[in-house]
User: Which sequence fits this backbone?
């Protein structure tokens, strides 16, 4: 007979918040969490490394819009998940990491216990929004509820809850509760009127949308159309405006052509972006008049001071701006077209053959498909600019933390979050080798996942940087194993090609297979 205990307090509370999937690896110390999953209707997905569990949870959150939940054991299980937690922090994704902890009274005692960690919650607390070691089953359930409340009403970021072993085992007779959602701030009405007047009066307005705008796509589109303004996005905002829309410029903020257009604009609206250097590639965003909207006060003047700062949720603020807008003078699609061409021309120079590779994969993937990339040239020089998406939450990549090994596990999470959207992976050989073991997870789940690995013989980006600094290449020319054979050994399909033009047919076949397909694209 199963008794309800601290583990049940946590798992029943997860279920009460609609969680039906968790990513993690079972261990000696988290058994009392795993015990309750099936009874609560929660599926346990087992990636082959906790880092992969974290990236899968990130992809699940990014594409599905629901928080990703990671279940680790104590000690190495948790420390293995730290890079993914830090990734979710940098990329503003909602993630709940749950781990067991040393029994009450033994924390920090250096007794030589299994998986003993000097200060697990303290370490996590340095990386995520908050990390809490709880003292009772009730407190554990409260912490989970608090995490979910914050995911919705504030900038989404990861949190960690540590449940001591004795608390997991302690009897619990409570019932899960969902609690209230933290209410998002409402923008100040006078500031909204001022912003609307500045934007409406502008002759050369421009809009930049970031990851904070992904749930405001309809509002952004309506506002941009009323304003007649071109819309560019950051990478995390990619697709907020359908990239084939006449006003869409694409995920172009790193390009000098876009940065110049901002500098030439007379009113710039930035929605939900910190305009971080990782997005701007040492460039800058400036404009005569800057209006910024963000849910977090600390973001409103970051990297580019605002003349009008609107503290609020993106959708609510854009609706209010649209209502207050009168007599616009925006240049409309003609200017957007011109800008898009300038951006594509600039991006083409660095992209080289990555442009054609992306076009070939794009041609095989249905419009509503999701692409997962990695910190590889084919992604940030290629897919960001040459893989158009019609909506937000269709592109997995971590431009801020730039985490190698993310793409494959993120695609697994994305596939589980939205089984109705076909998913493909397109990444470099270096990136793939960081998470090669997650091929086993994709095979377990029988995902019809095309995984296109662009093999340029190792860490090409770092090699290029060494050459640019006259450093003789060191540690960057790497032997890549025969990936097609390796895929077959994992139980996936594997094919090798040297022809980017062959990718369309290969990816199309892979999408209708009964298992993942690895396509090893060997470049000259
Ligand atoms: C975890 C991690 N370690 C190291 C780096 C530094 N780094 C950035 S790009 C890169 C090379 C990646 O190789 P690959 O995926 O094959 O892409 P390529 O540059 O060859 O196109 C490295 C090592 C990183 N971003 N992340
Ligand atoms: Mg490479």
Assistant:
């Amino acid at each position: 007979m199963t008794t309800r205990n601290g583990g049940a307090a946590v798992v029943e509370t997860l279920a009460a918040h609609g969680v039906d999937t968790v990513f993690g690896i079972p261990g000696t110390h988290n058994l009392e969490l795993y015990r309750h999953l099936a009874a609560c209707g929660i599926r346990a997905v087992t990636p082959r490394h906790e880092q992969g569990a974290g990236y899968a949870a990130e992809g699940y959150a990014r594409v599905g819009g629901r928080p990703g939940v990671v279940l680790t054991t104590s000690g190495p299980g948790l420390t293995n998940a730290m890079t993914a937690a830090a990734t979710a922090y940098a990329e503003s994704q909602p993630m709940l990491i749950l781990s067991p902890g040393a029994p009450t009274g033994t924390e920090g005692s250096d007794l030589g216990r299994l998986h003993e960690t000097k200060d697990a919650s303290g370490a996590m607390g340095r990386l995520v929004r908050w990390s809490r070691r709880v003292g009772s089953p009730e407190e554990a359930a409260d912490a989970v509820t608090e995490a979910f409340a914050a995911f919705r009403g504030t900038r989404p970021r990861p949190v960690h809850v540590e449940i001591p072993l004795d608390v997991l085992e302690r009897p619990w007779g409570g019932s899960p509760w969902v609690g209230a959602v933290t209410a998002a701030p409402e923008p100040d009405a006078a500031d909204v009127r001022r912003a609307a007047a500045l934007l409406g009066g502008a002759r050369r307005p421009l809009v930049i949308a970031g990851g904070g705008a992904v749930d405001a796509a309809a509002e952004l589109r309506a506002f941009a159309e009323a304003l007649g303004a071109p819309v560019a996005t950051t990478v995390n905002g990619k697709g907020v405006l359908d990239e084939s829309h006449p006003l869409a410029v694409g995920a172009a903020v790193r390009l000098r052509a876009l940065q110049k257009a901002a500098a030439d604009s007379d009113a710039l609206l930035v929605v939900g972006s910190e305009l971080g250097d990782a997005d701007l590639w040492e460039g800058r965003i400036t404009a005569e008049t800057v209006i910024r909207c963000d849910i977090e006060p600390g973001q409103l003047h970051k990297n580019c001071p605002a003349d009008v700062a609107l503290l609020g949720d993106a959708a609510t603020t854009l609706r209010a701006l649209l209502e207050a807008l009168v007599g616009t003078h925006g240049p409309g699609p003609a200017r957007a077209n011109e800008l898009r061409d300038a951006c594509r021309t600039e991006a083409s120079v660095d992209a080289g053959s990555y442009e054609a590779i992306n076009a070939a994969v794009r041609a095989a993937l249905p419009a509503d498909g999701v692409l997962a990339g990695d910190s590889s040239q084919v992604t940030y020089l290629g897919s960001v600019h040459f893989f158009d998406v019609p909506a937000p939450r269709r592109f997995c990549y971590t431009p801020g933390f730039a985490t190698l090994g993310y793409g494959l596990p993120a695609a697994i999470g994305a596939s589980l979050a939205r089984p109705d959207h076909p998913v493909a992976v397109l990444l470099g050989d270096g990136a793939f080798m960081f998470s090669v073991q997650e091929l086993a997870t994709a095979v377990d789940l029988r995902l019809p996942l095309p995984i296109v690995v662009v093999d340029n013989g190792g860490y090409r980006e770092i090699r290029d940087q060494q050459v640019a600094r006259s450093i003789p290449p060191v540690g960057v020319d790497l032997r890549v194993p025969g990936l097609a054979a390796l895929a077959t050994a994992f139980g996936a399909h594997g094919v090798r090609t040297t022809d980017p033009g062959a990718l369309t047919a290969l990816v199309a076949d892979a999408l209708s297979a009964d298992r993942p397909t690895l396509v090893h694209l060997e470049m000259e």
